[in-house]
Amino acid sequence: MKPIIEFKDFSFKYRSQVEPTLRDINLAIYPGEKVLIIGPSGSGKSTLANCLNGLVPFSYPGDITGTLEIDGVNPKKLGIFGMSKKVGTVLQDTDGQFIGLTVAEDIAFVLENDQVPQDKMFDKVGEIAELVDVATLLHHAPTALSGGQKQRVSMAGVMIDDVDILLFDEPLANLDPATGKRAIDLIDRIQKQKNTTIVIIEHRLEDALYRDIDRVVVVGDGRIVADTTPDKLLAGSLLKEQGIREPLYITALKYAGCEVTPESHPQHISSMNLQPYVDKVQRWYREKTFQKVENRQEAILEVKHLSFGYEDGDPVLKNIHFTVQKGEMISIVGKNGAGKTTLSNLICGFAKPNEGSISFHGEDIADWSIKERGEKIGLVMQNPNQMISKPMIFEEVALGLAVRGVSEDEINERVNATLKICGLYPFRNWPVSALSFGQKKRVTIASILVMNPEVLILDEPTAGQDYRHYTEIMEFLKEINRDYGITIVMITHDMHLMLEYTDRTIVIADGEMLAIDEPARILTNKQITDKAYLKRTSLYDLAIACEIPDATAFAAYFIDYERAMGGEG
Amino acid sequence: MNGRILTYEEKDTWIHRLSGVSKLIFFMAWSITSMMTYDTRVLVVMLILSLVIFKVSRTEWRQISAVFKLITVFMLINLIAIFLFSPNQGTKIYGTETVLYHLFGNYAITTEQLFYEFNIMIKYFTIVPAVLMFLATTNPSEFAASLNRVGVSYNVGYALAIALRYVPDVQDDFHQIKNAQEARGIEMSRKASLMDRIKNVAAIIFPLIFSSMERIDVVSSAMELRGFGKNKKRTWYSGKALQRNDYLVIIGATVFMIVGLVITYYDGNRFYNPFL
Amino acid sequence: MKKLGIKEVVAIGIGTALFIVLTEVQVPIGIPNTALQPRAALLAFMAAVFGPIVGGAIGLIGHALGDAVFYGSVWWSWVFPEAVLGIIVGVFAKKYAIKEGGFDKKAAVLFNVVQVIGNAVAWILVAPVLDILVYAEPANKVFIQGFFAFLGNIIITAILGTLIAFGYTKIGAKSSSLKKED
Q: In this complex, do A371 and B187 lie within 8 Å of one another by their Cβ atoms?
């Protein structure tokens, strides 16, 4: 069979850069294959994707050596429009990709540009909307849709063109775990039904492997470092070397001293042959020693019977009630649109609750202004670009102090101290624009920390970060929590984050609080994970398969063990 | 989030069913007539007609009450300002002076001034129901499509559609950024010096503009990848062919404009003068 | 006239959305019912980056739609000058080189000279003349009104518009000369 995508000795250098971003790429993908491309940020995997859809070289010019053929043709000959007939791209930013004013129009966008008559469009849009399960939403505006729904509309919008290749750029980045699972499921179904070639770019390996993948291509530093099957990849040590997170059950097996072999089919925990490993896992578990968790008993933030709604009779939050202890790291989880962000808005004073109250150190803060709350409870938004308003790093971090009329000497002192804590001191005179996304995130955290808040609320602190940056940010937060006693509240749908870095988790679903408990207990409880659109951790399945009755204790031990390893795992 | 902004609401009346282009032509003819004429008779007829249209389109008071109050305040200020700047504008226009009440110095209330300001007022007001009706009953996508149908480049139609598509997103971004900056202590309306106030606004607007500039890149890539601009023409999912009613409205609006202007300029002067 | 590219179409769309949203933002200066309008600075910035067509279109559509959705009326005599302003500022887009990272002091001076001229034409000439022609409003009133609009807009554009341009040009600039300090 002839490959549908074929790179031969392919290199690419952006016009604005000195070094090539891709070097000596040799890769062949065959029709109907489903290929996962993984690699850390900056490895060149996005550039590889842009070569496939024609954005390179048409929108991002540069120098190409070697050849690339898509369906036997050089993309250069086809032009970007010709390429769009062959390769459909679903971008990571679903808001950017959703161009139409309604779902139906967005799906029809390609057809409109191809001058397809209207009645034909109606038929085709109806048909494809059925396939991706958005048929009931055809006349909805994008603002009325969840992230998962928007993504399905984006898929419909590119599939309507009967493309041969579907390219997904980090499809899981903005989705809660259950919705992500559903997306992977849908991609799988489409591939089986239409026999489309699928290329998925992702770094959340465990979630991406939820359905069968034919091959995994690992990109590192502009080169292909592996082109192999998932089973072989999981058995080896390459993932660790490349800074990509292994599935948790694989890590657990390795902790237990097991030599994972490709023959045991480790791709899915459900179908994996665990026979050779059971003994070792059980022995490892029996040796467990729990670290004593200190019991904190000083309430810093109390949320009491809080209810909120924009309109009467349509509550966004109902009777939310919990206490955050001083010095803890706590996570708030739940599906997209469950009201997590609304909750942080209420705590910060951006919205007023209809019922209930919030106390800080026992004092009701209903009368505190946004600014007064901001001095005690700092908020870090998800997208650093939405917070940074000064061109230079020092000025940005100093801004909060400057507007409060703090003296210049004190500003210098406090800003420099904060920049040192955040590891940004060497960059203090740099423009913000020269920083990477993760560094910008640090700048926004620094700009809040400088005001000495007692509580830090972070909205999706690690969204869109690869494992290395994720670990960097989280270890940094752990440090400021441990060394400076700052209480940290994180809104997230990253289950690794809640499991590994938080002491307790608040679960919110459909505006109601389902639970507040240790993460290991929550992520092994099917009832809660289902209702809150979380995913039960694979550690649970591993424990059950190894006949360890207390799966929660198993998960908890895993986390303890990992923390003891010092984040090396 | 923001209840004040006027938006399209789907309903089923014959006005809703009209093509956006017919409504635009009506709106343009109406605007031109109301701008050109100063003939009280024409203006009064227009005012009455607007109220009728309003009723027929089943636009509800709650959709427009906030906006309406705002306009009224603005109108009052404007009318007072005109009087303060030029109390004799009426006399200048109509050529007579009938003093009702002398205030002080040059300032006297004259019948002519009152009549002139009354005309300005209804001139402004005749356009209000037309705007509200247009916004509340026109489906933006269909409007973009129908603009293209009457010969406007689809690029223009689509630019308009994108503007309407992204207003809610930009508005959300704006509120989020504003909140977060306020929590850092940056407020927009404080008794600070003018320069400080501008700096604070800058702190909120900067992230908004820069993230919007990124969005321009993403959206153009997305459109390009999906073949926008490939052909000279495109079709529209929400397009509607012009119906009998559309032609009636277009013809009606044009005839109305011509008749209105003929009546207005019949005596060689755009003002209707009851004082002669 | 040059054909509109995709980027220009999107810039008009999103620029207009920004312009409309910023209609809400006013910087009070102490005189009742008078405020500086940051959206004027935005318009000048967008025109300076994307050129006269985008600038003119954002001015025209943004002002008309902004008026309509927030105030329920369209004051055409103030809509057209906004478009004129966008066009005038946009004519010299290449010279400011904002996107290319070349917005320096010299470019800033040019930008401000042009914006002052543009605002003068728009608010001291076009707007009052249209007000007189359309609404027969008293000449002294509309010229004073126009003058204050001119003043407010040149101030906000000189400060805010120039700052935005400097900030944005830094994003485009090469940062090869940066060194870590201890």
A: yes
Which element (helix H / strand E) includes B196? Answer: helix B194-225
ipTM of the complex, rounded to two decimals: 0.91
Residue B99: phi and psi, rounded to 5, are -75, 130
Are residues A494 and A524 in contact, defined by beta-carbon separation less than 8 angstroms? no
Name which of B53, B26, B77, B57 is nearest B247 in CA terms. Answer: B26
Alpha-carbon span A440 to B168, nearest angstrom: 26
Going along chain A from its start, the domains and CATH numbers come out as 5-244 (3.40.50.300), 247-287+538-569 (no CATH), 299-536 (3.40.50.300)
Question: Is pLDDT at A315 greater than 80 in this prediction?
Answer: yes
Q: What are phi and psi of A502, to 5 degrees?
A: -120, 150
**Alpha-carbon distance B116 to B118, whole Å?**
5
A443-457, B181-195, B213-227, C166-180: which has the minimum mean pLDDT?
A: C166-180
Q: Residue A534 carries which side chain, given as an amino acid letter?
A: L
Q: Describe the strand order of the beta sheet including A34-38 as a list of residue ranges.
A: A87-90, A165-169, A197-201, A34-38, A215-220, A223-228
Q: Which helix (H) or strand (E) holds A77?
A: helix A75-86
Residue A377 corresponds to which amino acid? I
Q: Cβ–Cβ of A125/B237 closer than 8 Å? A: yes
Instruction: With respect to residue C181, please indicate whether it lies within any of the assigned structural domains.
Output: no
For C46, the token pair is: 């967008």
Q: Are residues B45 and B158 in the same domain?
A: no
Site of tokens 């003939």: B39
Is residue A222 within 8 Å of A43, Cβ to Cβ? yes
Which residue range forms the structural domain that includes residue B213?
147-225
> Within the 364-393 window of chain A, which residues sit less than 8 Å (CB to CB) from chain B?
370-371, 373-375, 378-379, 381, 383, 385-390
User: C38-50 and C76-91 are packed helices; what angle lies between their axes, rounded to 10 degrees?
Assistant: 40
Do B23 and B118 reside in the same domain of the chain?
yes
pLDDT at C29: 74
Say how far apart CA C68 and CA B128 lie, in whole Å.
Answer: 9
Tell me which residue in A117, A161, A371 faces B183 most closely, judged by beta carbons: A371
| Edge-to-edge strand list for the sheet holding A455-459 | A363-364, A355-360, A299-308, A317-325, A512-517, A504-509, A329-333, A487-491, A455-459, A377-380
Count of CB contacts below 8 A, B vs C?
183
Q: State the DSSP code for A558.
A: H
**pLDDT computed for residue A569 by the predictor:** 41
Question: CA nearest A139: which of A95, A103, A109?
Answer: A103
- Angle A96-A98-A104 (CA atoms, 0-180°, nearest 5)? 175
B131 and B155 both lie in a single domain: no
Q: Is residue C143 one of the residues assigned to a domain?
A: yes
Total length of chain B = 276
pLDDT score for B274: 86
DSSP class of A509 = E
Would you say residue B67 lies in a domain? Answer: yes
Residue A385: CB atoms within 10 Å: 18
Q: Which residues of C touch B209 (CB under 8 A)?
A: 18, 42, 45, 164, 168
CA-based max dimension of chain B: 71
Domain that holds residue C18: 10-94+101-172
CB A179 within 8 A of CB A147: yes
B1 pLDDT tier (thresholds 50, 70, 90): very low
Q: Which pair of structure tokens corresponds to residue B101?
A: 């009440």
Does C109 lie at the interface with B, CB-CB under 8 angstroms?
A: no
The Cα–Cα gap between A457 and A63 comes to 44
Residues in contact with A325: Cβ distance below 8 Å, sequence separation at least 6, in sequence order: A296, A297, A298, A299, A300, A487
Q: Is the pLDDT of residue B246 over 70?
A: yes
Burial class (CB in 10 A: 0-12, 13-18, 19+), B12: exposed
Residues B158 and B202 in one domain: yes
Q: Given an 8 Å threshold on Cβ–Cβ distance, is C13 in contact with B124?
A: no
Closest approach of A182 to chain C, Cα-based (Å): 32
Q: Which amino acid is at A505?
A: T
Quick one: closest CA in A to C176, which residue?
A434
